[in-house]
Structure formats: structure tokens, C-alpha cells
Design a protein that fits this description.
Blueprint: H1 2-29, H2 34-55, H3 73-96
């Protein structure tokens, strides 16, 4: 069960990071050169990955005793909410301006 939790968390975090990269890259390629857009997208996706992983970290982690990740509904909804806000921001609000 422990390995399946890790796999689920990695799938969720990598998916959120990829969607973030794609949204930011598509938005900035219209405004800057592709290299600059790629760098901005990679940095933004890295921050999304790190912040998503922190959401799944247990608050009272003891090495070897407690699981390394905890899947909670709050963490999953937070990740979906962050990606949703970025989607609305980059696909609808900023494109119209």
C-alpha cells in the first residue's frame, strides 16, 4: 500500500507540473522567444512540483516509522485548485488583455 501511495502522489504532482508547464509555455510563446518562454515555464512548473509535493508531506514525519507521503482530500483539492486557477488565468483572463 505504501508504494501505491507514492505512485499516486507522483502521478498527481507530475501531471500538475506538466499542465502548468504547458499553460505557461503556450502563453509566453505568443509574447517572447521560445527559449525564454521555455525557461519561464520550467521554473514555474518546478515551483508547482515542489509545492505539490509539500502538500503531500506528513506533518509529523519520522524516517522509517511513518509513511513518506499522505494522500489527503485536502491536498488533492489544493493541487486541482492551483492548476484550475492557472488554467483560468492563462487561458481566459490574460489572453483577452
Amino acid at each position: 500500500m505504501e508504494n501505491s501511495d507514492k505512485i499516486i502522489v507522483l502521478i498527481v504532482t507530475f501531471t500538475a507540473a506538466f499542465i502548468t508547464w504547458k499553460l505557461v509555455f503556450d502563453f509566453y510563446t505568443q509574447r517572447f522567444h521560445k527559449v525564454f518562454a521555455h525557461v519561464i515555464a520550467i521554473v514555474t512548473a518546478s515551483f508547482m512540483f515542489i509545492s505539490s509535493m509539500i502538500l503531500f508531506a506528513p506533518s509529523n514525519y519520522v524516517r522509517g516509522v511513518t509513511p513518506e507521503v499522505e494522500i489527503t482530500l485536502t491536498a488533492i483539492l489544493s493541487v486541482v485548485g492551483m492548476v484550475g486557477v492557472l488554467y483560468i488565468l492563462f487561458k481566459h483572463i490574460l489572453v483577452k488583455k
